[in-house]
Amino acid sequence: MSLRPAWLTFRRYAAATTGMTLVLFSLGVYTAATGSGLACQAQWPLCSDQLIPALTINPDFIEWFHRAWAMVTGFLIVGVAGWTWLGSGFDRRTKLAATLAVAILPLQITVGAITVTLSGLVPGGYTVSTHAAHLSVALTIFTLLGLATIWGGGRGSARLLRAAAGIAVVGIVASALFSRAVPFLTYAPPAQAAFYITGLAGHLGLVATVAYATEAVRSGYAGLDAGTAGTVRALAVGSMGALVGTLLLGRDLVLYTAVWQQVNLVALAAAVALAAGSAWTLRGVEPDGPSSEPIGGD
């Protein structure tokens, strides 16, 4: 007899873990933007010689809370991989995505520790290179979790493909409101966190769009031909590349001159246009094609 409650399906657990990772990403950006990454007297895993600092809103607490959220999320990520291997009905790609997310998790933890130990464990750890690595590995883990959730949830449909493309457009357009390329809001720490929450939501929509469109090309969806699905996939891949560029430029990885702002603006416009193109391509597709029953305990 299973001790797992009936409502806790793999799809829900993996989606919740992906959501936790999205929040963690945003918390990391906020922590760095406020300078709190240099708090805790540059110690890790201790924080100012304490395991748990004073629970008041200050740089030490912000950095410690980010670490605590990361620890919980890390265990949940391990749980996703474990479920795919110990459960039944999961295909190889789902297991591979979940396992890779766990495999590179130690790298992310190591880079995170280096990032916050300036003059601590690793002198000079708070540098552009470690920030870039921390951001890139986090995005890779987030993408792999998204794929594990999508693939482990069962076969897709034209309806799910249209929904994914719509989420991508909404997320990318929303991120434009907070982007440093658009002079609409001051790019303060809260705006930076909001930019990454919305931008990553758009990225996840694009990941789902590519995954479902690829499935449609290979095995077909009701009401959707392979040619249309291939076009949608190509547009979504292009949008994803442009969006990742804006996510990288959203951090201080380059000296953000007027030229880089223009590059950022072009990348953001391309991401919006290509995502909108993929959604527009699906406008005439019937959204009620059936999908198979989910797998993995759903």
TrEMBL record:
The keyword Cell membrane applies. Its main location: membrane. This is COX15/CtaA family protein. PANTHER family: HEME A SYNTHASE (PTHR35457). It is found in: Membrane. It comes from the Archaea. Pathway: Porphyrin-containing compound metabolism. Keywords: Cell membrane, Disulfide bond, Heme biosynthesis, Iron, Membrane, Metal-binding, Oxidoreductase, Transmembrane, Transmembrane helix. It holds the Pfam family COX15-CtaA. The chain crosses the membrane at residues 12-33, 68-86, 98-121, 133-153, 160-181, 193-213, 234-251, 263-282. The keyword Nucleotidyltransferase does not apply. It is a multi-pass membrane protein. InterPro entries: COX15/CtaA_fam, COX15/CtaA_HemeA_synthase.
